[in-house]
Amino acid sequence: MIEMPHSPASRLQQATIIVREAAGLAKYYFERRGTLETETKSGPQDFVSEADKAVETLIRQRLAEAFPGEMVLGEEFGGTATRHCWIIDPIDGTSNFLRGLPLWGISLGYIAEGEPVLGVIALPVLGDYLAGEVGAGVYLNDMPFSRPDHLVDIRLISLGDSVNDDLDQVAEEHLFWRRRGWTVECYHSTSVALAFAAQGRLDGHIQLVTTLWDIAGGAAICRAAGMRVEIGEAPISIRALASHLS
């Protein structure tokens, strides 16, 4: 296991406490989503709301209190990805959030030596809180969790989407799995898909174009759950697959 400046237990526990507090704030905004101010960002269907900004601000404040001086990169307020840093996605699935769908999450990941090693994902409306550290296992709602064996006859995978996708390439990936008898889901939230994969609700998640804040928490949790996780560069991509797909 990669060594980190703080002990793994205290780091994971503190990150979990921070994300639980942030989830409470996000849910407060979710219940008032019709009144929120929103903006578009880099392309169609890519939104940011005042809830995204408020949640990231809270997480940054709590990280500064718990781990003073440590580097932070967040979707809304930026930063620099270094060899050791925290990565925040305050609301992953903002479009779902604004439409009232429950498929959105909060992701906090920690990168050590350039690799995601610790993550916490909250799915506030669904009531699930996942935390995991590579080499130390996964916790679901504060209880130790082991990913269940797959159901052979139910083959289910998710394919992520991005405003920067090559649509022909995405279509080819979709057809690859469909032609082999798989059901392919798309949740428009990488954190939700990776959480579902780590829980065994999916056999895996594939995303051809993504970002560090989308995957840092979920990649660490999936690895901690025993899944094979491959992260590509330029553009960043992820394949998180169950052991029977390795």
Can you characterise this structure?
The protein is of the alpha+beta class and 246 residues long. The chain folds into two domains: 8-145, Fructose-1,6-Bisphosphatase, subunit A, domain 1 (Fructose-1,6-Bisphosphatase, Chain A, domain 1), CATH 3.30.540.10; 156-245, 3-Layer(aba) Sandwich (D-Maltodextrin-Binding Protein, domain 2), CATH 3.40.190. The protein contains six helices and 14 strands. The protein has a seven-stranded mixed beta sheet. α1 packs antiparallel against α2 and α5 (190-199) packs parallel to α6 (212-224). Residues 1-5 have low confidence and may be disordered.
Give short descriptive properties of this protein.
246 residues, D-Maltodextrin-Binding Protein, domain 2, alpha+beta, Fructose-1,6-Bisphosphatase, Chain A, domain 1, 14 strands, 7-stranded mixed β-sheet, disordered N terminus
Q: So how many helices?
A: 6
Strand neighbour order, sheet with most strands:
3-4-5-6-7-8-9
CATH superfamily of the largest domain: Fructose-1,6-Bisphosphatase, subunit A, domain 1
Helix content: 25-40%
Distance between the termini: 21 Å
Q: What is the strand and helix layout of this fold?
A:
Elements: H1 8-30, E1 38-40, E2 47-49, H2 50-66, E3 72-74, E4 85-92, H3 94-99, E5 105-112, E6 115-123, E7 128-133, E8 137-140, E9 143-145, E10 156-159, H4 167-178, E11 183-185, H5 190-199, E12 204-207, H6 212-224, E13 228-232, E14 237-241
Parallel strand pairs: 3-4, 10-11, 10-12
Antiparallel strand pairs: 1-2, 4-5, 5-6, 6-7, 7-8, 8-9, 12-14, 13-14
